[in-house]
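[User] Could I get a sequence and structure tokens?

[Assistant]
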Amino acid sequence: MSSSEEDDGYVPFSKRPEWSDVKPLTQDDGPHPICPILYSEVFKDKMNYFRAILKSKEKSLRVLDLLEEVIQENPSNYTIWYYRREVLKAIEQDETIEYDIQQEMNLLNDMGETDPKNYQIWNHRRFIVEKYIGSDNKEKEFLSGVLLEDAKNYHAWSHRQWLLKTYCDWNGELALVDKLLSLDHRNNSVWNHRFFVISNLNQSPFPFSLIEREVEFAFNHIRHSPNNESPWSYLKGLFKGQKISTIYPSLLDKLLEMKSKYIGCSHVNSIILDIYQEQNTKISLENSLNICKLLSETIDPIHKNYWNFKYNTISDQLKLIN
């Protein structure tokens, strides 16, 4: 090990009295490695002792300390995280060992700040919450903080939705959605979460009272930004498993009013097209064909092939009526 690395304050494990009984196990790349990786001396030292521990299968507090040091070098090392969980499960069964699991959460919180999109950190966090902590408002508070910092963090959303499904603590979720949408109304992750919440709190297909409320919620955001695809997709999802023209026939008039106001908005034309196709009358299908031409030729030519496909499909549907 170079003197500069020792000068930085790192003490090699060979010079730590508590590790004097362990013989490090070096990495074996064979006699003639083709492309050896230029590991730092510190990293090699830590990994050499980890290999020795892995071989001896020791599970103790000092091993947790070692694993933490290795993780700091490479936070994405799955094997290290896996063995850390094995150590935690082992010391839980040993009455002679005391370990405050909050220390584990503190480690995860600290590492999450510097590496917020690391799969292994989030996977380990779920393990700790599920096995040792359970339902805890502090976890939701932590996730709210993460999402306010980065509302498109897939791992945070996934962890939050797992937490909600597992412990059924839905309080404050729609308020969180409102807050995040006020910061970025185009964030599809937030719209997805709102749909996730109402889907878990209500049976599908949704009742009209819920649909009516959520349609107005979507409309409020659409009026603010009519070309924002997210609320339109959300609106369509509300009618999953049922026809818009059947459960909410008056919606078409509202959409037609929007169509005349938001000229050039492909989303409102698209959903009107769907309703006309649902109605399946000669007039409605002819109206659908006109919208397909408008979309393919003027409003949304980048998706021309799709709208031409829709045109041909509706033409075949119309032939069955004529």
In short: Residues 141 and 147 are 10 Å apart (CA to CA). The chain has a mean pLDDT of 95.
